[in-house]
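Intended use. Records such as the Molecular chaperone entry shown here are meant for training and evaluating sequence-to-structure methods. They are not intended to support clinical decisions.
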Amino acid sequence: MAWTLLVIAGLLEVGWAIGLKYTEGFTRPVPTALTLLSMIASMGLLGLAAKTLPIGTAYGVWVGIGAVGAAILGIVLFHESVTPARVAFMILMIVSIIGLKATSGH
């Protein structure tokens, strides 16, 4: 169950990271409210997952999901650059997330 909560927390992190772009500096009320709710939910679920998972693993996976997801959505939604190096580093992050999961002992 902790891993499910952690994955959801990571996906919500993607949501709030992308949401930051839409808040336009927290000047737009609806995107700001949705972004803040996503932040609260993401951190809350991370906290619940960290009750049973090692904090280094939980935090690393949470950040990794958020970073890779935000980078992918940045490319798709905001037409950010796609370079071989950027893709390679995203793949390395995914491998790192899988490695943390595989070696966590949970």
